[in-house]
Structures are given as structure tokens and as C-alpha cells.
Amino acid sequence: MPMSANEGGSSLDASGSSANVLKLCRDVTTGQGPHGLKMAPSHAFRCCKRALNWTPVLFINLVIGWSYYAYVVELCVYTIPKDAERISYLVVFHLFFAMFIWSYWKTIWSKPAKPSVAFALPSAEKELYEREQRAEVQQEILKKVARSLPVYTRTAGGAVRYCDFCQVIKPDRCHHCSTCEMCVLKMDHHCPWVNNCVGFSNYKFFVLFLTYAALYCAVICATVMQYFIKFWTKQLHDSHAKFHILFLFFVAALFFISVVSLLGYHLWLVGKNRTTIEAFRAPVFPNGPDKNGFSLGFRRNVVEVFGDQAKYWICPIFSSQGDGHSFVTRLVHIDPEQANTVLQQNGKIPSDRENSPGVEVNTDDDTKEKTEGDQAVVVMMDCKP
Ligand SMILES: [Zn+2]
Ligand SMILES: [Zn+2]
Questions:
Q1: How many angstroms does the Cα of residue 162 sit away from the middle of ligand 1?
Q2: Residue 214's CB: how many other CB atoms inside 10 A?
Q3: Which residues, by Cβ under 5 Å, contact ligand 2, an ion?
Q4: CA distance 64 to 255
Q5: Among the bound ligands, the one closest to the CA of 180
Q6: C-alpha to C-alpha distance for 211 and 262, rounded to whole angstroms
Q7: What is the helix (H) or strand (E) element at residue 168, kind and residue range?
Q8: Is 191 a catalytic residue?
Q9: Residues paired with residue 124 on neighbouring β-strands, in sequence order
Q10: Which parts of the chain span the membrane according to its record (predicted)?
């Protein structure tokens, strides 16, 4: 099941300021010409595009609906002769079906989380930024504002990451999605199969959706196989059920293979604490790009996505840790003095406090993190999402 990573705004990161190009892009997306003149009716076009975006979801729902009918009616009702076998198949099938639909539903309908207002430029700075034509001066304005925010990552060129579409300083791991037309916290990718951005608000649901989709297909394959063979070898009489059962097996096997490979990749990403975007392009910290910048060790990486209470791991109930705006970072290649300096600059710890191995550091009233040697620091913002 292929997924598309779609991140229109990220191209803005490469240059410190490309205000004119961006203004033109914004003009195109809003239907405004370069001089404020109305262009072609973009509203109708956008409505059509939004409706078309639901096509893959509709396709998946039709396949699921048909698979339900084929399994319950054609296999269980018309083909399986014994009651005990029929009932046990139906119970197991409905258990996985319910979990699969629940996690799919949550992935589709969880609104992508966007940066809080704390990341927008204050009105005075915003006015200055918009008036200013020189990229380096604009960067100075952004740097000044970013100093009071828990923002560590930079563009490849070392500039503060700013989204001209949403007019916010991008929090770490946040990216602009051109399909959703918004900045999405801890954006992983835009998934056409759920017509939604996969990010901080629904990444756990997405992984569970893949897991239950794989299990749903596995249950179908395992239970249908003997009847598939019986029809194939003509041990069962030809009936209208034959067509459904043969196709049910092929379709379930096909989906199983594609979903399992995608699930394996995402489980690997969870273990490494990387998003799909970060797997392709390492986040840039003050000390340079570091693909493992957010990795805290396998166990803590899993807990960051699934939460610290194992009972919630299998249910599509939100239990991811943090607020999506800031993340515990592993400041590799930075000596403890330098790491402290970064925190002090952000006003997050007093200057006389030192990080020492295994010491619990309270960097904020709401934040408590155990440091891993001198390398892990936690930065949480004061506001709630
Ligand atoms: Zn944006
Ligand atoms: Zn999106």
C-alpha cells in the first residue's frame, strides 16, 4: 500500500527567505494574481480536488465492505458446514474487523495538530518581517523570536524554519503539508489512503491501523485457505460462493504482503524515533544534521508514540507522550557545557544548574525528564496545544 510524503512548505527551508517566490505561490493557492487581481475560479477547483482526494478512501471502504460480505455470508453462511467452526470463525473475524475499522476510523478523522499561537510572530515583529526585503534581516527577526521558543532544528542552511503560508516558526519535527494546507506537528507523511496527514495526533492510530489491517488479512487467509483449496481441487461443488472465496483469498494475501512491508518499515521508524520525512532527510540541529537526534533508546522511543501504560498500546486511544511542539533531543556531539548554554539561551534552566548523569532535571513546572548522561535534554513549552 504505497504512501506519499507530501511536504510543500519544506522546500522553503532551503533558503533563508524566498518571500517573493512564496508570495507568488500563496497568490496562486489563494487565487490572487500578482497584483491582487482574481485569477481563474479556484474555489470550484479546490472543492473538486477535495472530493477527488476521497477516492482512495472510498476504494478501500468498498474492498472492506465486499470482504465482510464475502467472509460472513459466502464463506460462513453458505460454505462452512459445521456450526462450531462457523461460530468460532465469526467471533475471531469480528474481533479483528472491529479493531481494524476502529483504528482506520481514528486515523482518518483525527485532525492534524497544528502549531499553537505561541509560534506565530508577535504583531510588531510580523510587521517588521513583512516590510523587510533583506533575507538576512528577516532571519535576525526570526532568530530573536525563536530564542524564546523550544526550537532546536534549523534549515539545511542553518536558518530558523519559518512557514510563510501559515506564518509561524515551525516547531521541531513540524512540516507544512501542501495537501492539508497547514503546518502539521511531527508530520510523518500525507497518506492518500486515509486522506489525512499522519502526524503527532494520529501516528499511533496509523501504526495500529496497519497492524490490524495485517492481522485482518492474516485471519482471512488462514481460515479461507482450506476452502480455497477445496474449490480449486473441485472437492466442493461449484456455487456462487466459489468466486467470492477465490478472490477473497487472493485479495487478502495481496493486501497482507503490501501492508506487512509498510508496517515493518513504520515499526522500525518507531524504534528509531524517526518520521518518514526524517528518514529521508535528517533533522538539522545547531551542531549539524543528526538522523538520531530524537532517539532516546528503543524502549523510550516506543513509549513516546504508544505511551507508558501498556494497556493502551493495543487500542486506538490517544496515549502518545508530549504536546507535539517539543521533543526530548539527544544533543550528540555537544559537550555538556554547550548543551547547557543552549538551554540557558532559551531561558529553560538557570545558569548555575548542571546536567549530571542520571540526575532528574526539572526544566519546567510541567516537565520532568530523567537525563541519559549528558546527552539528553528536555525542552517543553509553557503553553498547551
Ligand atoms: Zn505551514
Ligand atoms: Zn496533509
A1: 8
A2: 22
A3: 177, 179-180, 190, 197
A4: 11
A5: 2
A6: 10
A7: strand 168-169
A8: yes
A9: none
A10: 58-81, 87-105, 205-229, 241-265
Amino acid identity at 235: Q
Residue boundaries of the structural domains of the chain: 8-44+113-198, 54-110+215-272, 285-300+308-377
Q: Let me know: does 363 contact 369? Beta carbons within 8 Å.
A: yes
Please pick, among 166, 174, 180, 191, the residue that the annotation labels catalytic: 191
Starting from the CA of residue 9, give the closest ligand: 1
At residue 29's C-alpha, the angle toward residues 27 and 34, to 5°, is 15
Which cell numbers hold the place of 128?
517588521
Cα–ligand 2 centroid distance for 253 (angstroms): 29
pTM of the model: 0.77
Walk along the chain (385 residues) and give the pLDDT tens digit of each residue: 434 444 434 333 433 344 443 443 343 334 344 444 444 568 888 888 888 999 999 999 999 999 999 999 999 999 999 999 999 999 999 999 999 999 999 999 999 999 999 999 999 999 999 998 899 999 999 999 999 999 999 999 999 999 999 999 999 999 999 999 999 999 999 999 999 999 999 999 999 999 999 999 999 999 999 999 988 888 877 788 889 999 999 999 999 999 999 999 999 999 999 999 999 999 999 888 999 999 999 999 999 999 999 999 999 999 999 999 999 887 644 444 444 444 444 443 433 333 333 222 233 333 333 333 333 334 333 333 3
Ligand 2 centroid vs 170 CA: distance in angstroms?
Answer: 15
Q: Rounding to the nearest 10 degrees, give the CA dihedral for residues 196, 187, 306, 336.
A: -170
Strand, coil or helix: 102: helix
- E strands along the chain, which residues? 162-163, 168-169, 175-177, 182-184, 189-191, 196-198, 284-285, 288-289, 329-330, 360-364, 367-370, 376-377
DSSP code at position 35: T
Nearest ligand to the C-alpha of residue 187?
2
Q: What angle do CA 112, 264, 9 make, to 5 degrees?
A: 35
Q: How far is the CA of 165 from the centre of ligand 2 (A)?
A: 14
Q: How far is the CA of 316 from the centre of ligand 2 (A)?
A: 20
Instruction: Please tell me the total number of residues recorded for the chain in this structure.
Output: 385
